[in-house]
Every structure is written in structure tokens, then in C-alpha cells.
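Q: I have 506 residues here and want to know how they pack in 3D. Can you give me a structure?
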Amino acid sequence: MGRFWRSDARAEAGAEPAPLALYAPVGSAFHIAAICDRAETLGLVPGTGLAEAKARFLGLETLAAEPDADRRLLEAVADWCDRYTPLVALDPPAGLVLDISGCAHLFGGEKALMDDLLARLFHQGFRANSAIASHAGTALALVGHGDRLCVPAGAERAAVLALPVAALRLAPDLQAMLQRLGLKNVGALLSLPRAGLARRFSAGLLDRLDEAVGLAERPIGPRRPVPALLAERPLFEPISLVEDVERILFGLAGRLKIDLERRGEGARRLELSLFRVDGAVNRLMVGAARPVREPARILRLFRERMKGVGEDFDAGFGYDLVKLAVHDTEAMAEIQTDLSGESGGEDAFAGLVDRLGARLGEAQVLRLKPGASHRPERAGSWRPVTAGAPASWPAAAVGASGAPRPLRMLAVPEPVEASFEVPDGAPLKFRWRRALHVVRRAEGPERIAAEWWREADAATRDYYRVEDDAGRRFWLFREGRADPGIDPELQVPDGRPAWFMHGLFA
């Protein structure tokens, strides 16, 4: 847990740096939002008006604060902190909360983990304060009020007694009121009756007090989902070659295979995280149309993904940590393999889909998802193939009589000029996109009523499957009144039947 600032690197070699402050608008005026160490030494404090600060401190250098850039930087640091724990939450504007439960022993203990984190951040150009406690509320109150604090379980109350009221992060007006009343530290608040505090200051103050002393849990919202399985490999010497990354990836996939086999599952979505020595993190996500756990197949997926990324995948000065995570799993039945270890019944289509998704992106390889609607345009929607197992199509999607649907559906039905022998009969010929088609064979009508719970004034449609004299097959429908799904300018105003082209069978 900590707050981060960029270290001041503006001073020239051998010259004393000028005091630096950032300002931001507060109401109709500018106020100091952040200051460097030298400005703090001179007596400047955040909240001072910009004009007053320039008048009091000659030579003060001021820059406009950029909250959006600060947040992007904070998110980048949060990504880097995934090397310590997958549970990393933002604490705006300049802090992070890390849940290191069950992770500290991997680094030699809580104190060793904190020292390693602060040392790495220092070498990246950041100054950080940190605190470790059994409760997030206690750690958030302590950070910035000591150097590398580590509070054992059960000592939360004693650790926060001497903290100023500002450590509770109360609203500015409430904090100012407590200061006027002489309640300047947490111990003074804890010594007062709880009932009186609740009546005077509302229950929000008691909640912050309980969180600070460990009587209540302060929930945190991790930025990224916690993976179902995770394998990692720290490296003594950084690597940058693709061949080295693939070799380590293959080994991590082999370790995950053991856990997946034990659970009787396969991976549907995997993520490779490569931590660069300069603090940046490169992430690659792949999905599989069918559950996978063979290291060779996982390696092929990521190899295709890396080819698709191309030069955007920059190793910088190298990677010192590689992680392979399984985010989605699915039950996977055991299959018989031959002597080479390969499955003789492997689905070639699933392998093709996986390679295309890894190279082009999962959003580019889609399948139709059935929907519970008789309206053709609502009977299916596109979704990535890797989003789950294909579902069976209901009868409503293929017509109540089992009639097939066209291979190609027009996004918007297009009007046609049709001639017919009787008003309710099939068309004899029609003109579509300036081309005249003579109907040789027709089937229908297939009547599809409006869905009254969605659109009360929708028209009933009579669909016909027709074939022209050239052997081309079309899907037309006729409607006799206003249809809200069609442009009003394309509809017949006097109530006569209007014909529309909705799909093509070939």
C-alpha cells in the first residue's frame, strides 16, 4: 500500500533544483495541488492559492496538474504490482492497495516483500510510502505517517491512536469541524462515547474509525479478475528473445497441465504476462474454442498471438518475470491418444478457429448465438467463438415448420417492386436493385406475427422463398401496414401490401 510521486528530475547537474508545484482549479480559482520536497521544505503547503504561492516563494516553478495522466501512471504501476499479488486495487489519486494474503511467503515474508517493492519503485524513479496491516482500513490510515510500518494482528488500535484526524480521510468540512472542536487525533475520537459521535457527526465517522482500528472490513475492488490457476517463473537474468519466452511459456503450461488434469478441466482463456525490468507489463490473451491443456497447443496459440501483435510487442530491456494464468476453465473429458501423445480425434476446425482468433483477435472470429424470437433479425446475434460452447437453435430460430433460413440476411430489409396474380399470393416477378427477376418457383407464405410485448404496432409479415429463372433464391416478405423496424419512407402509405427483400439463400 502506498502513495507514489514522480521524483524531481528537472535540476541540471550541479545546480540546485527550483521548487516545483502543481496547481489545479478549485471553484473559480487555482490552488496548489502537489509540491516537491524542496517546496515543502520552504513552507509551501497544498491548498494554497496559486497567486499567493507565487508571491511568497520567488522562483517557484508551477505546472498545471494532469489528473488523467496521473491516473494512467497509477494504473501502469498497478499493473506492475501484479508481480506480487493478483489482488491490486486503486486508491486514487496516488495510492494502491495490495492484498498480499498468502503471497508474502514467496518473497521471504511481509517485510521482505515491502522492502523489495519499495526498492524496485525507487530504481524506477518513484518515491513511495507503505504500511502493512491485517486490515485495509488500518493500512490506509497509517500510510504516509511512518517509514515502512508493519502492524501485527491485534495491534491496530494502538497503532492508530496518535494519528491525526486527517488519516481517516474524512470530508474536508467534517475534518475542519473536528479541528475546531479540539479533536486533533484518532485517540481523542476513540475516547468519546460512540452514541454521541453518531448523533453529532453521523455514522460515517464511526465507520471510518472502525475500519482504522480493525473492527470493520474495508472492501477493496481489484482491478483485474483473479485467475483460476496461475504459474510464474522469476528470472535472475532478463530475457528478450521470443525463443526464450516460448521456452519458459512451454514449461509454465506443463505445470498448469498437472493442475488442470487433477481438476478434470481444460483452459478456455489464458493470459501471458511479461514483466519488463523498467516497470512496464506486456500482456497477451488467447482463447480456445474447445478446452485445452496440452502445452504444445497452448504454445501454438500464443505463438500465433505474438505474430499478430508484431512489432508492438516490445521487450524493452528484457523481462524478469513471466506469468501464465488461466482465467476460464471448462470440464474436459479424457481422450485416448496414440503412442506419440497426440490425439487422433482432435477437431481440426477448433484448431483453425483458435489460430485465427489468436492471430486476428477473438472479436474477428464469430458465431451466431441463437435467440428466443420468431423475428429473423432477432433470432441470432454474433458473439466470439471462444465465448462458450455453441447452443442448440430453438424452433423459433428456424421457423415453426422447420423451414430453413437464408445464408445471408440483409441488415435492413430493402424494398422491391413486385407483381402478383392475387393480393395474397406469391409474387410472379419483382424488381430489386434495378434488376428484374422472374419467379420460377415459390414457397410460402410463412406468417410471422409481431411480438406485441416489444412493439405493439408492428406488422405481421408473410415470408416467401422464391427462385428466379436464373436459379437464384431469395427470401421476400410482404406486410400490409406500418412496420417500426423499417424506414417509414420505404413503406406504402395507403395501406397497400409492401414487398421487401430480407435475405439470400445463395
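Q: Anything worth noting?
A: The chain has 14 helices and 20 strands. Confidence is low (pLDDT under 50) at residues 1-13, 490-495.
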